[in-house]
Amino acid sequence: MGKKKKSHRQKRGYPIGLIIGFESMQINIWKVFSERVLIFKVRKLGRKFENAQKSHLYHFFEDIINDLRPIMKEGIKSILLVCPLKKDYASLFLNHIKSHHKWLILEKNINSASFQILHGSVRDLEEVSSFIQTDQYLEAIGSVTEKETNRIIETLEKRLNDLENGLVLYTLKEIEEIVYSGGKRKKKFKPLSLIPEHILFTNSFIDENPQKNRIHRLIQIAKNRQIISKIIDSETPAGIRINQLGGIVCFLLVKSDYEKKIGQKIIDR
Which keywords annotate this record (predicted)? Predict the structure, then answer.
């Protein structure tokens, strides 16, 4: 009896951003990872953009926003809108956001996203794989991710400078203490006393760490608790700053004396 062949699943790497491809009658939402691209959603308009009534477009764009909400909660907020040349589909969607969801594009809001419109076509895996090799994509994704990470770093710096209410942790052990304090199994989770705003890693910290499985377990359990973990390219300004702090950092705002005591206990151990 022959040996079973081992399945070789292609690594997807860490999340970078989203590509929303607009075509005449549908949109394709792609999740972009450091190692590959995966389709997330295909949403059909049911008619051509040019023939759609304003009310139909309104509901279509609202459906797209609802598609984006769970992804943004995971911390993916760099979004490229790709549209055929001489078509205004992506502009219509961005105008809808400006009119009905302004919070999504506020510069200083850590919960907002960064958008940019590009011209091209990403109808299938072959097209999107080719598209992400282009100079216009590489320049645009660098720009939107920098805006996104800069907002996070601004909040981190505020916590670092807030000696009274800011709490910043720099070790895997300290962060695990907070995240695991209410249990590790999703079905048996208890409320956390301290809830991190973000857990940040650089890709070089993870790549060079002999305890990768431990890190990925922390990221998964944090995700189950809806805590945002983000892996940032070490060569970006945000990545350089995080590496200055050791390559891993977790920050939060403590709101009571009780929370401050818990935070101080973790630091003192």
Answer: Coiled coil
